[in-house]
Here is the input.
Amino acid sequence: MIALVIGFVITASVSKEPVRAYTALLTGPLPRVSFAHGVEITNLNRFGNWLEESTTLILLGLAVSLVFRARQFSLGAEGQVLLGALAAAAVAVKAPAPFPLHLLLALGAAGMAGFLWGLIPGLLKAYLAVDEIVCTLMLNVIALQLFDLVLLNWLRDPSAGFLGTAAFPASAVLPLLIPGTRVSWMLVVMLAAVFAVWFLMERTPFGYALKMVGANRKFAEYGGINARRVIALSMAVSGILAGLAGAHLSLGLLKRLTVSLAPGLGFEGIVVALLARNDPRGVLVTGLFYGYLRTGAQIMERSSDVTREVVLIIQAVIILLITAERLFPPFQQWRRTRNDGGAIAIDHEFGG
Here is the structure.
């Protein structure tokens, strides 16, 4: 609530109609229900935009949370998204097959591309002690150049008026789930992924090993856990989810592949995972919240006099104040320690 109040103060300082602008931010993604001529639902496309954004963000949040649970700060989701989308597009354009085999092959290629690209920094970290932050950042640059190389030289459609592929055949496109929007069956895949990652983390030996390595690697190794294998697999498995996020962009939203594919989106998954404390169930909630915030910000920008820069500031303030909740437990512990210390000093002074 404090974050929303500060956001409104910022909006009021730059907008001539702050109430209208902020209402667009807070209610813009919701559909409108009219009863004038029976039950009529409008603005369904805005509601669809919210679910589309959230689906991608949740998949990325799940990918990041897997790595973070093992206390590895990987930043490789950006490159895995690109290569996942590229692999899906390559199968869609170059490997014709009937539906649904064609779609399954494209999704499988996206997941495999993400898996292999995530395995590289995982092996380097596990067996050569290479810093995963530097490694994954450099691999993102390589992935971007590889993406441009393959797209422009082998997949590009020369007859298109832009740098991109031809429209994918219907056999390789994700079927729509909600008519009138671009919400596809990837929404169901995302929900299944949330359950699968939760089950992996909480109900399997690998999930136990993941938590133990994240808590104390030396203790985990002393207990017989192969920490190197856990670290490598955590990064590789997270790549599958990021690759599926890339497939959602190409096979579900764009239905083709373009040279500028949502730059910086991979880093948004870090925000979602941090807000959720790396809990897959929390990722579902925070992904929906952050997707709602992003969609509302876009609507606010289009329907008011608030510029995008101000919208980004409001987003940042809201996220900072939500994550600031983590400051309170240390502060409370400091006060408790201080009070206990004072009580001991008084007790000692009076001979207690």
Notes: Residues 104 and 274 are 31 Å apart (CA to CA). The two ends are 46 Å apart (CA to CA).
